[in-house]
TrEMBL record:
This is Tol-pal system-associated acyl-CoA thioesterase. The gene is ybgC. Belongs to the 4-hydroxybenzoyl-CoA thioesterase family. The keyword Transmembrane helix does not apply. It comes from Parapusillimonas granuli. One of its GO terms (molecular function) is fatty acyl-CoA hydrolase activity. Pfam families: 4HBT. Keywords: Hydrolase. Residues 24-109 form the Thioesterase domain.
Length: 141
C-alpha cells in the first residue's frame, strides 16, 4: 500500500490483554505509554516513514523527551481501545504529539508527548530531514 501523506491523524485499535493489567484487572498505568508508542509508530508507517531506513540512511532516530499524561478512567481486561495520535507542533528536531486512549468514544487517558530526533551515533538532537519535515507538515495540516 502506498503511503498516505494526507493522513492528519491516526487511530490504532488495541485489545487489552491479561499481560497489560495489574492484579485488579485494570490496565497498568505505564502500559498506556506503550500503547501510545505503537500509535505513533503505526501513524508514521501509514505516512510512509520507515524508521529503520531513516536510522540507516539519515542516521536519525526518535526518542521521547517529555511526557505529560492524565489518567481519566480505567481500561480493563479485554477492552478494545482506540489510540488517537495527532501532531500539535513541529520543531527543528522535535515532534509534539497529542495522544488519547478511548473506549467506545469515552476518553480514558490523554497525553502530550515530545519526541526528539537524534543522531544515531551521538544521541544529540539532530534536525528532521527535509523529506520527513515535508511529510509531517502535510500530515499536521
Amino acid at each position: 500500500m502506498p503511503p498516505d501523506t494526507t493522513v492528519q491523524n491516526s487511530e490504532l485499535d488495541i485489545r487489552v490483554y491479561y499481560e497489560d493489567t495489574d492484579a485488579g484487572g485494570v490496565v497498568f498505568y505505564a502500559n498506556y505509554l506503550k500503547f501510545f508508542e505503537r500509535g505513533r509508530t503505526e501513524w508514521l508507517r501509514r505516512l510512509g516513514v520507515n524508521q529503520i531506513e531513516l536510522a540507516e540512511t539519515a542516521q536519525r532516530i526518535f526518542v521521547v523527551k517529555n511526557v505529560e499524561i492524565q489518567y481519566r478512567k480505567p481500561a480493563r481486561l479485554d477492552d478494545l481501545l482506540t489510540i488517537r495520535s495527532d501532531i500539535t507542533r513541529l520543531g527543528r528536531a522535535s515532534i509534539h504529539f497529542r495522544q488519547a486512549a478511548v473506549r467506545a468514544g469515552e476518553l480514558l487517558c490523554e497525553s502530550d508527548i515530545q519526541i526528539c530526533c537524534v543522531d544515531t551515533d551521538s544521541f544529540r538532537p539532530a534536525p528532521l530531514t527535509d523529506e520527513l519535515r515535508t511529510i509531517l507538515e502535510k500530515a499536521k495540516k
